[in-house]
């Protein structure tokens, strides 16, 4: 396959419609090979300051552009993304490592979001409602917040950016965007697309750099009125603390410990496919990845055997080679964390059935690869069953009933995604009611969220907000209640009612 060329060896920030260099840069490395792809700016606080200044100015005009016209830009963004889908997908595989088929899926998720949110330009519905008093009109409508900050992770460098930036833009805000330094190429490409699509300068500003400098400056900046963050629980809590002090709106999405429940009446082959796809796809580096299988005792051995048989077909390697089904781990720190959890699992008494070690043969040189790993006989209270590993590691937890399965699912600190395989409609409805997660799948794995539904979770996964779906608009808008009294006299609410 011909490799796509990025066309530059140094990325630049995109501020006020201009491509601006930073003094310092760092190398971006292909996790499959260890080769340098490009240099990414490590910006300072000054870049954030310039971006906010430009955004403030541009947003005032943008807010006055009718929303259907704002949406036209997003349609154009969607068309350009569609035209460049293959280019974007290959670059995504190079910087993130996920296999090409999944990269294409992620880019498609961004395209879907463009057209969906463009449609919102003709909706952005508020409510009209009867007023209590005669000759009085009442309605609620959405107003943009102003300048918003988005901080996006490396595991879905384009899809998650679209979940946040597209609703913000269609609703009339200006955006300061700090992408993860591991995967800046998607941000650079998307900024170029925004520019070509005709988005006015200053409405999207991409500032590359570290969380401790650029992220911190954004969180502390009084003129950035919303922070939407996807990333680690620890960073999210820190951001929320600071935003709380400033009364700044903050939307957090911070991971999961997602389980597939397999009941004794399940279609086991289907369950195996769902588990393998959601546990080992993206090498388990998804917030939604399945990392626990809560299995009914009666089918446990059967399920283990079928999983082990099919795990043999998972070819691991560079995602640009289409025969590979599982790509690399993002970096050494990610790999080291996975290794630690294997030791923790063994020490806790879980039984290792497959995998459990990094792949270090000649074929994997330069990259960070970990063998798909299966533990069994885990219990719900073990650390490997409770803590996010962010790698291709899944643990089987045997149970004896649906009630026990639901309890085990709900026992963790997170609440993003869950799944149940069963043919019994009564169990389906009981499970979807009682599983304490923001996303529930029936007869499918724990991944595969679609963009027109809300994405996010309960408990330690977030703070009550949602990405994507129409619900994302709530993060980037303020509700305004408007009362119009056309009686020509003073009418006092709750008093002049007779
Ligand atoms: C994430 O892992 O942070 O449902 C996002 C999914 C994808 C999005 C995952 N559509 O797995």
How much strand? 15-25%
Order of strands across the widest beta sheet?
Answer: 14-17-18-13-12-20-21
The CATH H-level superfamily of the largest domain is Aldehyde Dehydrogenase, Chain A, domain 1
Helix content: 25-40%
Q: Count up the helices.
A: 15
The CATH class label of the largest domain is: Alpha Beta
Task: Give descriptors for this structure.
498 residues; alpha/beta; Aldehyde Dehydrogenase, Chain A, domain 1; Aldehyde Dehydrogenase, Chain A, domain 2; 2 domains; 7-stranded mixed β-sheet; 5-stranded parallel β-sheet; 23 strands; binds 2-aminohexanedioic acid; Ald_DH/histidinol_DH; Ald_DH_CS_GLU
Structure in words:
The mean pLDDT is 97. The protein is globular and about 80 Å long. Helix 8 (233-246) links the parallel strand 10 (224-230) and strand 11. The chain folds into 2 domains: 13-254 and 462-481, 3-Layer(aba) Sandwich (Aldehyde Dehydrogenase, Chain A, domain 1); 258-442, Aldehyde Dehydrogenase, Chain A, domain 2 (3-Layer(aba) Sandwich). The protein is of the alpha/beta class and 498 residues long. The relative contact order is 0.14. The strands form 7 sheets. Strands 14-17-18-13-12-20-21 form a 7-stranded mixed β-sheet, sandwiched between helices. A 5-stranded parallel β-sheet has the order 9-8-7-10-11, sandwiched between helices. It has a 3-stranded antiparallel β-sheet with strand order 5-6-23. The chain has helices at 45-62, 67-83, 85-96, 100-120, 159-170, 185-197, 211-220, 233-246, 268-280, 297-311, 332-348, 383-386, 402-410, 425-434, 472-476, and strands at residues 13-15, 18-20, 24-29, 36-42, 127-130, 136-144, 147-151, 174-178, 204-206, 224-230, 249-253, 258-262, 290-296, 351-354, 358-359, 369-370, 373-376, 393-399, 414-415, 417-421, 439-442, 458-459, 477-485. 2-aminohexanedioic acid binds next to loops. Residues 109, 155-156, 286-288, 447-449 line the site of 2-aminohexanedioic acid (UN1). This is aldehyde dehydrogenase (NAD(+)). Its EC number is 1.2.1.3. It is an enzyme of class 1 (oxidoreductase).
């Amino acid at each position: 396959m011909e490799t796509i060329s990025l066309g530059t060896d140094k990325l630049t920030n995109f501020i006020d419609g201009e491509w601006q260099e930073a003094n310092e840069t760092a190398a971006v490395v292909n996790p499959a090979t260890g080769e340098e792809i490009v240099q990414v700016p490590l910006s300072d606080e000054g870049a954030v300051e310039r971006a906010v200044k430009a955004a403030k100015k541009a947003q005032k005009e943008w807010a006055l552009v009718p929303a259907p016209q704002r949406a036209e830009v997003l349609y154009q963004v969607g068309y350009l993304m569609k035209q460049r889908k293959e280019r974007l997908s290959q670059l995504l595989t190079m910087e993130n490592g996920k296999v090409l088929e999944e990269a294409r899926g992620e880019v498609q998720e961004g395209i879907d979001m463009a057209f969906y949110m463009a449609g919102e330009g003709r909706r952005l519905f508020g409510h009209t409602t009867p007023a209590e008093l005669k000759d009085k009109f009442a309605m609620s409508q959405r107003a943009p917040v102003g300048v918003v900050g988005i901080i996006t992770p490396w595991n879905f460098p384009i899809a998650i950016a679209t979940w946040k930036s597209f609703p913000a833009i269609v609703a009339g805000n200006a955006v300061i965007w700090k992408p993860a330094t591991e995967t800046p190429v998607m941000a650079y490409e998307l900024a170029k697309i925004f520019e070509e699509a005709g988005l006015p300068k200053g409405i999207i500003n991409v500032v590359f750099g570290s969380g401790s400098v650029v992220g911190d400056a954004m969180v502390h900046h009084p003129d950035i009125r919303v922070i939407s963050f996807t990333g680690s629980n620890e960073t999210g809590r820190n951001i929320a603390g600071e935003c709380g002090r400033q009364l700044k709106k903050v939307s957090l999405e911070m991971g999961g410990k997602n389980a597939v429940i397999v009941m004794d009446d399940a279609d086991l082959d289907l369950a195996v496919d769902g588990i393998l796809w959601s546990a080992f796809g993206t090498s388990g580096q998804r917030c939604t990845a399945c990392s626990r299988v809560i299995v009914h005792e009666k089918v446990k051995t059967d399920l283990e055997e079928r999983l082990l048989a099919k795990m043999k077909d998972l070819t691991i390697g560079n995602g640009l080679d289409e025969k590979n089904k599982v790509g690399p781990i993002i970096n050494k720190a990610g790999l080291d964390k996975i290794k630690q959890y294997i030791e923790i699992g063994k020490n806790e008494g879980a039984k290792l059935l497959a995998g459990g070690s990094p792949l270090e043969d000649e074929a994997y040189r330069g990259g960070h690869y970990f063998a798909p790993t299966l533990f069994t006989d885990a219990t719900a209270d073990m650390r490997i069953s409770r803590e996010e590993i962010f790698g291709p590691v899944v643990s089987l937890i045997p149970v004896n009933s649906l009630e026990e399965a639901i309890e085990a699912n709900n026992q963790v600190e997170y609440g993003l995604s869950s799944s149940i395989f069963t043919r019994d409609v009564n169990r389906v409805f009981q499970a979807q009611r009682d599983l304490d997660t923001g996303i529930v799948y029936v007869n499918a794995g724990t991944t595969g969220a679609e963009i027109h539904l809300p994405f996010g979770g309960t408990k330690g996964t977030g703070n009550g907000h949602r990405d994507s779906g129409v619900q994302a608009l709530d993060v980037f808008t303020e509700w305004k209640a408007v009362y119009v009294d056309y009686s020509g006299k003073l009418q006092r609410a709750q008093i002049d009612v007779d």
